[in-house]
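Q: I'm writing up a methods section and want to include an example of the input and output format. Could you take the sequence below and give the corresponding predicted structure tokens, formatted cleanly so I can copy it straight into the document?
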Amino acid sequence: MTPLLSITGLCVDYQSRQIGARRSATAIRDLNLEVFARETLAVVGESGAGKSTLAESIVGLVRPVAGNIRFDGIELIGLRGLQRRRIQSRIQMVAQNPLLSLSPRMLVATQIEESLKVHTDFNRARRRERIAEIVAALGLSEAVLHRHPHELSGGQAQRAVLARALVLEPSMIIFDEPTSALDVSVQAGVLNLLQEIKAELKLTYLFITHDLGVARHLADRIAVMQHGEVVEVQAPQALFDNPRNPYTRTLVASSLLL
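A: Here is the clean output for your methods example:
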């Protein structure tokens, strides 16, 4: 089976300035990963493992120094202009803190509509119709559209960010710790909603989390990252029953103690 997303030999360095010198730190080294259409691949690991850098590399926020990222057969590294916008409409990202992802000065409806203005040729009536469809699918009230982000609850803000992503009918969504900023009472509802939307719209998820319990609940496969490398990929049950890598064994043991 051909993967929807294929990453080979990916390397990302960060440059940092110190007194009298510039230093380079490796965030990702020789990373290989595949994501197949309609699956949920969870990426787990400790803080600093390179999970967010991986996500940012895929959507073009970080430029790798080596390697390839191919989406549906198209090389993403180096894409510019119209080609980049076309791919961006098919790969959307939902970040950790929804309130930081939304402009505090703009109404929710305006922010969702901006995505359609940039990536489609829909007229105003069609944009409003599309927004109404997505809002209804996510269980958001029309009133939420006419509020500013600070007027929303955590769950409403996360759904608003998800609506902005889904309005473009993407093939794949990258989630970077999407529930870690939410109250525990809200997390379960958001995770269940994500599963329902994925099944209904036949989406592919790359789901970044530090929580192995969440990964086990959502994922078809789990990739474990350590020091910028993928050290193991297995189905959830296999990973919990028989972790191969010593680091994975430590993560699994820690999660079972919680």
